[in-house]
Amino acid sequence: MGRFQKPIILSLIAAIGLYFGAMFLGDFKETGAAIAELGTVGWLVILLLSLVNYGLRYWRWEWYLTKLSGSRIPHRRHLAYYVSGFALSTTPGKAGETVRSLYLKQHDVSFNHTLSTFFVERFQDLLTIVLMASAAAFLFEGYGLVVALTAMVVLGSLPLLHSPFILTKMNALSATLSAKPAKLLQHLLDLLNSSAVLLKNKELLGGILIGITAWMAEGVGFWYLLVCLGQDVQLVAAVSIYGVAVLVGAISFLPGGLGSTEAVMGLLLIASGVPEPVAIAATLICRIATLWFAVFIGLIVAGILALNGIVPISGKEVTDLG
After folding, report:
1. Which among 77, 192, 248, 309 has the fewest CB atoms less than 10 Å away?
2. How far is CA 263 from the centre of its chain?
3. Are 203 and 64 in contact (CB under 8 A)?
4. Would the pTM of this model clear 0.90, i.e. be above it?
């Protein structure tokens, strides 16, 4: 993981500065007291719900990758590869999580199959988050347009992703281009063709159901956190706040949604009547228990893999996508 240390360290520094800055902008003592109020049991419940999210998403990932590649990788090893990608969750669009493809290439799983699976996962996660955030269009003024526009783009692009007409036109276009652009377009076509297998029938419906269950686990965890902090926020409102915050973080394309997710979550909590110090504390705890918990686990697992001599393939091999 040496080549990935710089973005991880920079994101950690940015996060620490952001979180402590948020605490000092509010009331440091009251924020600290609210964090302490959660207690050991509260932390365990929230972290367990985050693990449910990770586990369900891995299940979907393995199902999809097996469907595309036919590869059968030992579960413990495959899970380790999947979780190691979490170490790079703070990259824009979580693109760093594609490091899994560098591990899986050593099992003869093609980059096309892993990248297609990653693409479909991100697409379905975005669709799920839009559904979770939909209540915000009615609960909070000014957020309906963001949710509606994102929903239109995501749902509108679904039929286009596996349209035979568009794929045929793109294929014809590649024949008119010079070698390098044609090769890049062909890689995109291969990715879309592979993705199309996972974006219809039971794969699409099953993946969405798994995604909803996974992300709802974290949404419920956020609601439980607010209850532990003595706040009377309805489950639907809490889940919607969580969904909108994650959605804004995703479409901002900032690393891990840092700054944008926290700002929106805190503002919506305050708009819901949560005192500012508690809103800040809830935001910090939620992000620690979801994003940073995943990064921490990913770093540990990647380190264990490295100690056992299992590392991503070299950069030279990555460039050979043909």
Report:
1. 309
2. 18
3. yes
4. no
